[in-house]
Amino acid sequence: MKKIIALLMSICVMTTMAGCGADVEKQDANISLQQTEEDVQMEPEQTDQAGEQSSDTVETKPQETDTTASGENILVVYFSRTGEQYTVGVIDKGNTAIVAEMIAEETGADTFEILPQEDYYPYTYKELTDVAKQEQNDNARPAYRGDVPDLSEYSTIFIGAPVWWGDWPMICYTFFENEDLSGKKLVPFSTHEGSGLSGFDKKLASACPDSEVLEGLAIRGNDAQNDQDSVRASVKEWLTGLGH
Ligand SMILES: Cc1cc2nc3c(=O)[nH]c(=O)nc-3n(C[C@H](O)[C@H](O)[C@H](O)COP(=O)(O)O)c2cc1C
Known about the structure:
By secondary structure, this protein is α/β, with parallel strands linked by helices. It has one domain: Rossmann fold (3-Layer(aba) Sandwich). It is 39% helix and 16% strand. It has 7 helices and 10 strands. Strands 1, 4, 7, 8, 9 and 10 form a 6-stranded parallel β-sheet that branches. Helix 2 (95-107) crosses helix 7. The longest helix has 32 residues, at 2-33. It is globular and about 45 Å long. The site of flavin mononucleotide has 25 residues, from helix 2, helix 3 and strand 8.
C-alpha cells in the first residue's frame, strides 16, 4: 500500500512539473511578443527557390453578406504574401491568409484580400524586406485592386496583415484611409516572428479615429504554417472573448 501511495505521489509531482514547463514556454512567448523590430533578426532561412505569387490568390471571394451566427455581418480583410518568408521558407499560402481563413470559418464571415494594384513585391525575402523598408521610409500609400465589398453592409471588420518592420504594411494604410470605416468595430490581427501585435491596434485607432478598435490577436507566422491546431484554438478563444 505504501508503495502505491509513493507511486501516486511521484506521478502528481511529475504532472505539476510538466505544467510549469508549459508556463515557462508561455512566458517565453510573451517575452517574444514584446520584442521590437530591432530585436527580430531579419535574415531569412535558406531556401532553394523563390516562390511565386499564385494567380489563384488574386481573386476576391464573392461577397455574400449573410448574417453570421453572432447576428452581425462580418468581413475579414487581410494582406498576406506567398513566396519566400521568414523561418518558413517558400510558402504557397501566406501566414496571415491562413489565420484570416480560420477567422472567416469560425465566424461565417466574408473575406476580402488586399492585393497590390501592381504586384512589384519581390518573392524573395531579403528583397521584399528592402522594398517594404523603402515604402515605410517614403510613407508610401501603394494602391490596391479589386472590388472592395460594400462596407456599409458590415458592422464588424477583422483586419489582418504581417508585421512589416514593426508596423502595418503601408498598403494597409491605403485601405484604412481610402475606405469608410467610420462607425465600425475593427478587430486587428497580425502574424509575425517576434514582434507580436506591434501596436497594430493603436496604429489602426489613430488611422481610423471614428471606429471602435477591439482587442487584437498576434500569431506566429511559423505556427500558422506548422501548428494549425493550436492556432485555431487561439483564434477560437479570442473570438469567444470578443463574443463570437
Ligand atoms: C518585409 C518584412 C518585414 C518584416 N518585419 C517583421 C517585424 O518587424 N517583426 C516581426 O516579428 N516579423 C517581421 N516579419 C516577418 C513576418 O511578419 C511574418 O513572417 C509574417 O507571418 C508573414 O506573413 P504573410 O505570410 O502573411 O505575409 C517581416 C517580414 C517581411 C517580409
